[in-house]
Design brief:
The structure is a single chain. By secondary structure, the protein is of the alpha+beta class. The chain has 4 domains: 3-96, Winged helix-like DNA-binding domain superfamily/Winged helix DNA-binding domain (Arc Repressor Mutant, subunit A, Orthogonal Bundle), CATH 1.10.10; 115-244, TolB, N-terminal domain (Rossmann fold, 3-Layer(aba) Sandwich); 247-337, Serine Threonine Protein Phosphatase 5, Tetratricopeptide repeat; 473-595, no CATH class. The chain is built from 26 helices and 14 strands. Strands 9, 10, 11, 12, 13 and 14 form a 6-stranded mixed sheet that branches. Strands 4-3-2-1-8 form a 5-stranded antiparallel sheet, with helices on one face. Strands 5-7-6 form a 3-stranded antiparallel sheet. A hairpin with a 2-residue loop joins strand 12 and strand 13. The longest helix is centred in the first third of the chain and has 18 residues, at 131-148. The protein is globular, with a radius of gyration of 26 Å.
Length: 605
């Protein structure tokens, strides 16, 4: 059964509310209250009856009901629920037939979505080591605001850069309308949290409060703060309704967030989160983070070990999604453990759920990366730029926006972002490789020489092949191109396989026929050997669509290659065509139709 009214629909089986086609996150109590009012819509429902249905076996104050009714009215409109003085409430909207379309009228959400920065709360505890707890609580407030309101919330990586005396410059540097700051004092089993919301332009304090609670009540405080901010800015708030977690377990959870994403750090985080989920099996956020962290580690494992790893991730993500169907980290984890090619149709289901889910978990930054794998470069750039504006100091967000710019041909615009990353994050291998390619495309050979010197001292790992490509591109004499071709053909002969990145490079260097000949006689995936490509981009398809390297795409044989990778199956089934479909010098869609009978290669790991 689905309940539809003008502008929204309620899906009880999925516990989802759609407003003008877009999912809206409601807390569990608010959703139960809405269902009760709809089911009993033919009459006025007494407050006591609603309290008994929505909070069974629990003694709660009537104010809780009033707050939830107010939240529902902000979503559905002020006339959706009538207050009958002295009696109770009644749902007043007319329901539509199941087959009736939901009205595409204007969304009831405010069009103005102000930007807010939540700074790292000061640690006033006697133990400096408790800073992790202050940071963790601040981060959880960020997540609740991002998920439970229509506010745009700057990510922790960026906002937490402003501490101590630097807090005074946060509003101007981050170009935000509001700043939330505060302090936390923790002692024994008690915690005191003070918080205040300031309007950046005027310096006016719009709201402030303090909370003295037992540690077990920390989730309730986080929701209270987020809801108070939303109310102060005239926005609705929908709580995530996290159940209480033992304070010691919550401490472990706060310590588990990865920073560098190096494999050893990821392994440590996985071990900590396994303990957390064992001791708090109802803790959805911990299950989601465990799936996400393990899925990132998964991409650095030998391929022979990945099936077992993927099984763990799927179970952990499924557990998180059973507790919270819109958990961002669990959804991106499911995408990460899909094979690099061959199962795009299945992966799209999780990607679309991730795009529709509210909130700003770490997983959302990868939407742009996932879109590029099927050639949707313009959509990828839009997603990357949006995330980057809210997270400009986060290395991964910066790397992904630069990649998206490069992919669409905005090479010069990507260079400053890469230059900053190379200077700030010396151990990050992604930006050096990409910056080398960017300067080569711009023919800035002085910058290339500088980076080649730097690359000799930095770990490039899976991006090592960039260097011979750049050298051949710099001086494309027959001798140098011949040397590159010999190395290329030797690699295919020795390993029996070729990854799509090498095919793109070969075609760009003028070896189009050689690239297709190699692809026809070779495996496109790994062999389970030491020569396999590790890391997040190993055997991925994104480079096939790079704007600056169109040679492989411009050949009518390209769709048959894409059919082997499972891309043609995805495009025909979804109608989500790559941007290049309207750019190549042949009828791309017709060639894909002709190629649909080409067997899809099974990714063996």
């Amino acid at each position: 059964m689905v309940f539809k009214a003008k502008g929204f629909e309620v899906r009880p089986a999925e516990r989802r509310l759609l407003v003008h086609g877009q999912p809206v996150s409601l807390g569990g109590r608010a959703f139960d209250l809405l269902l009760a009012l709809i089911e009993l819509r033919e009459r006025v429902v007494a407050k006591d009856e609603l309290l008994a249905r929505v909070w069974p076996g629990t003694v709660v104050e009537e104010n809780n009901l009033t707050v939830q009714i107010s939240s529902l009215r902000k979503v559905l409109g002020p006339d959706a629920i009538a207050t009958v003085a002295g009696r109770g409430y009644q749902f007043t909207l007319s329901l539509l037939d199941d087959d009736a379309p939901v009205s595409p009228a204007e969304s009831s959400f405010p069009r103005d979505r102000p930007v807010i920065a939540v700074l790292a709360f000061d640690n006033l505890s006697n133990e400096p080591e408790m800073q992790f707890f202050s940071d963790g609580v601040s981060e959880e407030i960020i997540q609740r605001l991002a998920r439970g309101t229509q506010l745009r919330v700057i990510s922790r990586t960026t906002s937490f850069q402003f501490r101590g005396e630097r807090k005074a410059e946060a509003a101007q540097r981050l170009n935000c309308a509001y700043v939330l700051d505060g302090s936390i004092r923790r002692a024994a089993g008690q915690v005191r949290i003070s918080a205040h919301l300031t309007e950046a332009a005027s310096g006016t304090t719009l709201w402030s409060d303090h909370y003295d609670r037992a540690l077990e009540g920390i989730f309730e405080v986080q929701d209270d703060i987020a809801e108070s901010i939303a109310r102060a800015l005239d926005h609705g708030f929908f709580g995530v309704a996290t159940r209480a977690v033992d304070p010691a377990v919550y401490d472990l959870y706060l310590r588990s967030s990865p920073k560098s994403y190096a494999p050893e750090e990821l392994r440590t985080s996985v071990g900590v989160l396994e303990v957390v989920t064992q001791r708090a099996p109802h803790f959805a956020e911990a299950w989601g983070r465990l799936a996400y962290v393990r899925s990132f580690l998964h991409m650095y494992l030998p391929f022979a070990e990945r099936a077992a790893s993927a099984g763990h991730v799927v179970r952990e993500a499924s557990h998180a999604l059973a507790l919270d169907a819109q958990n961002n980290d669990a959804l991106v984890a499911r995408c990460f453990v899909m094979p690099p090619f061959g199962r795009f149709v299945e992966a799209e289901d999780f990607l679309e759920r991730l795009r529709q889910a509210p909130g700003s978990g770490a997983g959302r930054r990868y939407i742009s990366w996932l879109l590029r794998l099927t050639g949707r470069l313009r959509a990828s750039l839009g997603e990357a730029e949006r995330i980057y504006r809210l997270d400009m100091l986060d290395p991964m967000s910066a790397n992904l926006v630069a990649l998206a710019r490069m992919a669409t041909g905005q090479v010069a615009e990507a260079v400053p972002v890469y230059e900053d990353l190379v200077a700030r994050i010396p151990d990050m291998s992604f930006p050096i490789s990409s910056l080398l390619r960017a300067h080569a495309f711009l023919q800035d050979w002085t910058a290339v020489d500088r980076l080649l010197t730097l690359a000799a001292t930095r770990p490039l790992r899976e991006f090592q092949d960039t260097i011979p490509f750049v050298r051949a591109k710099r001086d494309p004499t027959p001798e140098h191109i011949g040397a590159w071709r010999s190395e290329f053909e030797a690699h295919v002969m020795i390993t029996g396989g070729v990854d799509v990145a090498r095919l793109v490079y070969a075609a760009h260097l003028g070896l189009v026929d050689e690239a297709f000949r190699a692809a026809d006689g070779a495996r496109l995936g790994p062999a389970g050997a030491s020569t396999d490509i590790m890391g997040p981009d190993g055997y991925r398809t994104a480079l096939l669509f790079q704007a600056s390297m169109p040679e492989l795409r411009n050949d009518p044989r390209f769709p048959r290659l894409c059919a082997r990778l499972g891309l043609v199956e995805f495009w025909l089934a979804s109608g989500q065509w790559p941007d290049c479909a309207d750019e190549v010098p042949y009828d791309f869609r017709q060639e894909c139709e002709s190629a649909k009978g080409v067997p899809r290669e099974i990714f063996g790991f």
